[in-house]
Amino acid sequence: VTATRLTQSLAGDLRVVLGQLMRRLRSMHGFSLSQAAVLGRLDREGTMSIGDIAAAERVRPQSMAQTVADLELDGLIERSPDPADGRRVLVSLTASGIATLDEDRHKREGWIALAIDAELSEHDREVLEEAIGLLQRLERWQD
Amino acid sequence: VTATRLTQSLAGDLRVVLGQLMRRLRSMHGFSLSQAAVLGRLDREGTMSIGDIAAAERVRPQSMAQTVADLELDGLIERSPDPADGRRVLVSLTASGIATLDEDRHKREGWIALAIDAELSEHDREVLEEAIGLLQRLERWQD
DNA sequence: CGTATGTCAGCTGTACTGACATGT
DNA sequence: CACATGTCAGTACAGCTGACATAC
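ok -> structure tokens follow
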């Protein structure tokens, strides 16, 4: 029932590097990490509702509503009611949001992606992809 | 210079699963994740100074001082001056801290370790170990 | 009516920077 | 003296829950 000492070390190393990565990710952007994540996703996937974005980012709708509200204050996204369903709010990038995203990409946005391209071999990328699947399984594990 | 669309997706998936894992880790414990991390580390490595713990967890000494102060208020750890260097503060588990850690292990502590033992094959564990090294390289990458 | 979507308010946890006291 | 260690105060960020309004 008890985890082995070796597994505990592995788990500890994982926990520490997760924390480091999260903090480095946070510190890299002019806007916040959550905001950058939303901008990038809208750019990749186009207009989405708040609930859709929340589901994709795996946070509560209330949390995403706040992030989207912050982005709207900065003029980077635009909200409009869904003509087909008055409850839904459609979120899309503004011209200013697209420009900001482009500009930021040349500096700091997409940092993980750039690091992956610069640092990892093809083999490494395959290992990372497999490991992401493992991490997802761990996250979903129930005692 | 620009990352490929595929790498961007990989990076996005990684970012999302990192966030999920961090949040799940946080929600699993009676005490906070940082507190649990410190208790576990003291148990594995014995008495350490605040600076030592901060370095191992890769956070600033000021942050660790706060975590340690919280644990002291709960009576789970004990602070004592280093007889050999009056600037240093040695931190060790109290009897109550050891008891709390033991008790919690049977419920929620060491959750990642338990999940790894339960969910991952020997091959998976090797992949994870390799991936942790890759994540460390990514974290240290400089543009 | 019940259900779904989004919002408002308040809270917790985490770690940061800058300024400082004290000990070597 | 300078340097190291730790602490205090203030700030930023991220996400949560509960209560609620509105639309289907």
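Chain A touches chain B through 57 residues (CB under 8 Å).
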